[in-house]
Write a structure and sequence with these properties.
The protein is mainly alpha-helical. The chain folds into three domains: 153 residues, no CATH class; 144 residues, Metalloproteases ("zincins"), catalytic domain (Zincin-like, 2-Layer Sandwich); 31 residues, no CATH class. 58% of the residues lie in helices and 4% in strands. The chain contains eleven helices and four strands. Strand 3 and strand 4 form a beta hairpin. Helix 1 runs parallel beside helix 6, helix 3 crosses helix 5 and helix 8 runs antiparallel to helix 10. It is elongated.
């Protein structure tokens, strides 16, 4: 509720800044006090319309934000029959903790990422990329799903969607006013001011144009301040909550190594082509760090892994080189019933290296032993036994 109240306040600030610029365009030779009073009167008149417009934006975002995100990402809902492996992993996690099963969506992208959306239990959805399904084994996918479910359990998804609404509408109006200011400055500002000054009498001029410059500076500062506050809301909400979601995943799966391994595989490979910044801010990892990490919405993978090692007793294998998509798709995935964690993948082959499998023909030559090199000796994922 505080976030939504802050949204209305930021909109009023933007409307006031726009009124200042409008008053300067109407009259360019008044004093600063005149502009401030005139803009305040404009704000009072525009207050009902600004309130109604903001409320309408919230209603639209509440009911249609998922449709907008799906349109941007091309996410499609899937059933158990279409994705039995992924569906069963998510369902088992929900059953184990009594969590309402969210909708499951697939995004066709080679990127390695996932995100959760929704404002209430009827809207909650978890979207996973096809690249993530190809590159991660079952335990790692389960850890990522646990991360997203924790966001839903903690209310992070609802908070982040509201923050996106705030940042989106503030960014929209901020850009609108900046465009208006730019057109005014570079288009007909000079001519318009000259004509207005020449048509007005000396008694009407209470300033020489210096007041208008001061007002324009104030308006620009207000717009920038509103935009920075909207960005700060997103940063304050998202950075800390990523640590909590990682911890929640470990609580659900009892497997910190799987979460660490998943983060290592996702690291630097989560960019969703064509996705807006608002969508990337919902993802497991957001590689868009901004200027010198100043506007990064996620803590670094290194810091998240350090926390998992320190507080959850996980083991960090270090940065991993991913296998190619074709090799990963051809290889078996680790079953959840296995008591051993999946070994870290190497640059090639489903489990690293280029070990032969049952599908490989036995090697034959003058120095080979038929008994030793029979096809049965190549039955394990680690090669010859």
């Amino acid at each position: 509720m505080l976030l939504l109240g802050g949204l209305f306040l930021l909109i009023y600030v933007l409307v006031y800044a726009g009124a200042l610029i409008a008053e300067v365009m109407i009259r360019s030779d008044a004093t600063v006090a005149y502009y401030l009073r005139a803009a305040l009167n404009d704000l009072i008149k525009a207050l009902p319309w600004a309130t109604l417009g903001t409320a309408a934006w919230i209603v639209i975002a509440y009911y249609f934000h998922q449709s907008i995100i799906d349109a941007v990402t091309d996410g499609e809902a899937v059933t158990r029959q279409q994705q039995p492996r992924l569906y069963n992993l998510l369902e088992n996690l929900c059953i184990s903790r009594g969590i309402t099963m969210p909708k499951l969506k697939i995004m066709d992208s080679p990127a390695l990422n996932a995100f959760a959306t929704g404002l209430n239990p009827r809207q909650y959805a978890v979207t996973v990329t096809t690249g993530l399904l190809t590159a991660l084994n079952d335990q790692e996918i389960e850890a990522v799903l646990g991360h997203e479910l924790t966001h839903i359990r903690n209310g992070d998804v609802r908070m982040m969607v509201i923050a996106m609404i705030i940042a989106g509408v503030v960014g929209f109006f901020g850009e609108l006013f900046f465009r208006l200011f730019t057109n005014m400055a570079w288009g007909g500002w000079g001519g318009g001011w000259s004509s207005r000054r020449s048509s007005s009498s000396d008694s009407d001029r209470k300033g020489s144009g210096g007041g208008a410059v001061v007002i324009v500076i104030i308006a620009v500062v207000l717009i920038v301040l509103a935009w920075l506050l909207s960005q700060w809301v997103k940063l304050a909400l998202s950075r800390t909550r990523e640590y909590l979601a990682d911890a929640g995943s470990v609580e659900l799966t009892k497997n910190p190594d799987a979460m660490i391994s998943a983060l290592r595989k996702i690291e630097g490979r989560g960019e969703l082509p064509g996705a807006t910044s608002a969508v990337m801010e919902l993802c497991v990892d957001n590689p868009r760090e901004g200027f010198t990490d100043l506007f990064a919405t996620h803590p670094s993978v290194e810091s998240r892994i350090r926390a998992l090692v320190q507080f959850a007793g996980g083991r960090d294998p270090g940065p991993l080189a991913l296998p190619s998509e074709a090799d990963a798709a051809a290889g078996p995935q680790t079953d959840l019933t296995s008591d051993t964690a999946a070994p870290p993948p190497l640059p090639s082959g489903p489990w690293g290296g280029s070990q032969p499998t049952q599908a490989d023909p036995p090697r034959r030559g003058p120095w080979t032993d038929p008994a030793r090199d029979s096809p049965d000796t190549f039955s394990g994922p680690w090669g010859r036994h």
